[in-house]
Protein 1
Amino acid sequence: MKYIKLQLLLLLICQLGCHSVKGGFEKYSIDLDATPKSPQLFGKNVISTQFYERDMAISPKRDEIVFTRGDHKQNYRVLVSIKRSKGQWGKPEILNISGVYQDIEPFFANNGDRLYFVSNRPIYGDSTRSDYNIWYTDRIGSAWADPVSLDSAINTPDDEFYPSISSKGNLFFTATRVNGVGKEDIFVSELVDGKYHSPEPLPVEINTSFYEFNAFVSPNEDYIIFSSYGRGDDLGRGDLYISEKDSSGEWMESRNLGSEINSSYLDFCPFVDWEGRNLYFTSERGIAVDSEIKNMEELQRIFNRIENGFGNIYQVSFEELNLVEK
């Protein structure tokens, strides 16, 4: 019964990705080729809605977007897919592997036929486990196969978050471990002969004594964009930072992406579409109420608007970061 209720709730959430007009649903377009000079809501009323959206990935063929949608308190979170066929985007659908557990943070690999993600589903046959671990699923036809967990070199009884895979197959992710640098760190596990080796924290140019999390690494591992909270130049509740490698292949000191990208609210979950030359990220920024709320209708309108302080996904041209892909 709990499963059925959750499915019905999330079906409603997905349907609200379309705007009701005169008894029907008007589908809004998604533009992967727009390159806004400042952060703009992405997929308004389709991907970004009045619910909580965070972390997204675009398939290498750019014909599918997978993102996380949850209720307002994120008690329920699922992976949602929206696909493009013959130039038209369809409606958001919950992935066939999602809807029971907390599933978040997708990342495409293997030309889009493998999807990594994070889930708190039981692992290694232990029904008592509810920590977050990294899983993957392979595409079989139009569906996804039963998820497979990474081995215990990666997944521990503590939490592992936000997988990002480079062209070499190396895995970057977030965790808190005894060999870390700060309160939460970004780790890398090298793929050697098809097996992930023991993860190591990235250097102090990236990890600090504060919180570093949710990193997206470029395919060639020459850029990394991540979130951090607690630094002296933090503009709010967490900002996006970037580090580049120098000519010798060493990570340079990371820098805040600045007020043109970051806000005084939490900004996190970066993803870069290299073909579209866009940075996508999640933000809890909202629109300030600049007048007195005089009645319940006005309060309801504020609550129902998209930028209501819950997570939304934003799009901005990568060129605005003043970087050149190496």
Protein 2
Amino acid sequence: MGSAAKKEESMKLRGLHLLVTYQCNLECDHCFVWGSPRQSGTMTIGTIRRALDEARELGTVGSIFFEGGEPFLYYATLLGGVRAAAGLGFKVGIVSNGYWALDTQDALECLKPFRGLVQYLSISTDLYHWEENISPLAKNARRAAKELDIPAGFITIAQPEEANDPPASASAVRYRGRAAQKLAHRAPGLPWSGFTECPYEDLKEPGRLHLDPFGNLHICQGISVGNMFRVPLGEILKQYDTDSN
């Protein structure tokens, strides 16, 4: 009886993050989705619209983020997806490394179609991406976003050796994907007995999930709770049980 009741209580999803593509113009050591120029897997506008419709049916999802890889590599798909999400009343965010912001004018032209549609632009910039923590490209992108009234900020990841004292506004490396392979050996050692819970994700009620181009729904990058191309989103959430997944 208790188990059946538990199954009826769906995970309360508040945000859905769409990995528009696994492809990226860069191949950063800290990337937890293994983004690179050689990666395959990209969403179509049709795929995005289907995901948005299922998210709206839940009635709990308020925000949609478009991520990658690098979502601006597929500009038309990104723009079409953002327009569809905004049209359905979702708050919309984008995560990008800003490679397209060669100068402020270029960045303005790139971002103009998103004006009034995007509530937040996150720009990834650090020593994994570029030669400076805050690159000229990132500065151009944020400057242009400000002119267009698009709220924007930087995502900066510290080096492994800075884990105990990261620079201001920088986050620590999360050792998933390529980061586990390339950077773990540089991290300060810690006793295994201290790892009693995930320090990054609430695996019982995460509040957000990541959908990749193949339909996999990640509760944490690399850990899938189902495939939306085979099972509807609402059904996946009803079936999810932390202890048995």
